Amino acid sequence: MRKVVVRLHLVGAFIAAIFVVILGLTGSIMAFEDELDHLMNPRLFKVTPAGTPMRLTDLGAKVLAANPGKRIGGYGMGVTPDVSYYVAAGGSAIYVNQYTGEILGERTGPSWLSQIHQLHLRLLAGAWGKTIVAWAGVLLLLLTISGLYLWWPVKRLAVNWSVGGRRRWFDLHNTVGVLGFVFLFVLSLTGIVIGFENVTSPMFYRVTSSQPYPFAVPVAPKPGANLLTPDAAVAAARAAMPGAAPIAVGAPNPKTAYRVAMRYPEDRTPGGRTRVYVDPYSGAVVLAESSRTTAGGTRVINMNRAIHTGDIFGIPSKWLMSLASLAAVAQVITGLTMWWKKK
Fold first, then answer.
1. What does the alpha-carbon distance between residue 93 and residue 107 come to, in Å, rounded to a whole number?
2. Among 201, 204, 148, 115, residue whose Cα is nearest residue 5
3. Measured at the alpha carbon of residue 190, what is the angle toward residues 31 and 29, in degrees to the nearest 5?
4. What does pTM read for this prediction?
5. Which residues of the chain have pLDDT under 50?
6. For residue 26, what are the CA distances in angstroms to 15, 57, 120, 197, 249?
7. pLDDT per residue over 187-197, tens digit each?
8. Residue-by-residue DSSP string for 25-90
């Protein structure tokens, strides 16, 4: 049985090696995606708090004055007072100082961090890439479990640095694998859930007897009626979800309700898990989805993603998942080196 598991472990490692390296390296970066973006682009994101932020409509007017002919698609608000706002206009994100109205810069097209994100999710290859990533996650899970099985009779948790050759790499492979077992297991399992979300998400809703909230809420157009301003929609959302901070809102639309994305203090994911839909004519809240009370299936999905990305407990859990991603890369390197030296 052990010989069979060794052979399967080796074959699985050869098949998954390149994908595990890609996922591990990109995953270790993605754990700090926002932090790295802000660190590397302080000109776009860093502002000094000075009083009350300007109204969104005034910021939008300044952007349009500097970019005539563009159409505003929405607004983004910084999650902390020292992070800038942005105005989505004409396919670009135009960053502004919310206290002075100064335009800080413009970003058009994907950044290198967003490309790394897509490489991690889909290998930059669309649906086929996502399928490959999902099955690579399955192989990583099987390698993690079979590795523990192979380690169990030896139970070695030390590296003998005085010896060289294959033995040192064997010790490294065992030690890293066992110390990182729990995190590699969680990382691969949660990644599988995300990779096969077309199957897992409906299953979560069935198990919890719940239904997802709609992503958009249509409204009946009222020709000639004035549309609510984005600032009024945000104010209505704040009143509906006290304690949650707004982070994004769409532009006025006569056919759909405003969608205000919000975030409670415990929601550490970049996107808002709380959403409030506001009627663009009356200002009434037509639908509210709180991350604290949303559908059971949605809570399971959100929790799984937060665990996988390390967002669940903030910086400490991000470091754990980043290091676990690098541990997966280390396992590939040490495992292949062991095989090469044996050959």
1. 5
2. 148
3. 15
4. 0.91
5. none
6. 19, 38, 6, 20, 30
7. 999 999 999 99
8. HHHHHHTTHHHHHHHH-HHHHB----SSPPPHHHHHHHHHHHSTT--EEEEE--SSTTB-EEEEET
